[in-house]
Structure prediction request, 346 residues.
Amino acid sequence: MPESKLASYVRVLEFKRVGRDGEEHYETIDPLIEGFWHKAPSALNQREYKHNGCTIRVDINWQRLANRIRRDNELLRPVRTGARSDNDWFRKISRPLKLQAEVTVSGTNDTASYQWYPAFFVEMFVHEVFLIANLAVPGSANFYTLSIAGAEERHPTEMGLSAFVFENGWVDSLNGEWPRFQTIPREEVCEWFRALEIGYKQRADTGIEKALYVLLHIAKDNTRIDSITWIFHGLEALVSTRVGESVSGLVRRLGEILEMDATMQKNLNKRLRQLYDLRSSFVHGGYAVPHPIASEVIDRSLDGHMRNLYELNQFGAALLIATLQALIKKRIVKLEFHEQIMATTI
Prediction:
């Protein structure tokens, strides 16, 4: 048996930019984001993993991020209202922010001595916090410019986790559009996430796990056509419909979770069919592939295409997020659907 040991590591989390991408509804959104990060619960500050004979504990104190978000909002408030502002406000909010992640590894195994081993669990925890934060207060964790590195590492790991679809979905919701987002107490989301028992799992098993991993893929790149495929994969996995099954089954099951009336289900059916047609054209070869530059200024024929792609992407992602939020509120950690046939015999 290998000798048990205790090792400690430090990883630096650097935000090149802190805060939201947009400014709409800042009077409503900004205080709720500040409130989420203020005095974050232990579930967001500490995480323990068990892996092949090792216990790995990750500690991240998010208070400096909370303080920075509040400070930046105070600097931006007079700029947004047209009042007299700090002349140096832009330079101040553009400064990078650094946090420390402390990792303790107890025990040993075949991979524990590698440099990437503790770094993996920091990344895993950051992905968890990203999901928890954005499901509780959409747009509250924008980790797109976040990088993680050790003291001697020349090439940091870029997280690239954008809160774009969460934030835009909430803005749309505040503008009266459907699906409606909500804010959920962070303790409820932490409890729900803990009950899923995902741990360090790298391959999703349940429909809920698949939907969460799909959101992470969308957060990495939410403007490409393949995001439509990811969205359908997440929705179909979440409500246990087979790939390529009729849209009506998807609508019926989502309608049950989101408590939709007949009119709402009819509208959902129309939007999902638009999504499905776009997905089918991409999967089966009928999609008119745009150039990667995708400049609408140079080629105006791209205008309608890019707008349609964005709107359908945003709607599909918002539908996935709203459904997960509904499950959290209902305290549901596992879904099963059983079709019944009611027959009358002679």
Notes: The first helix runs from residue 26 to 37.
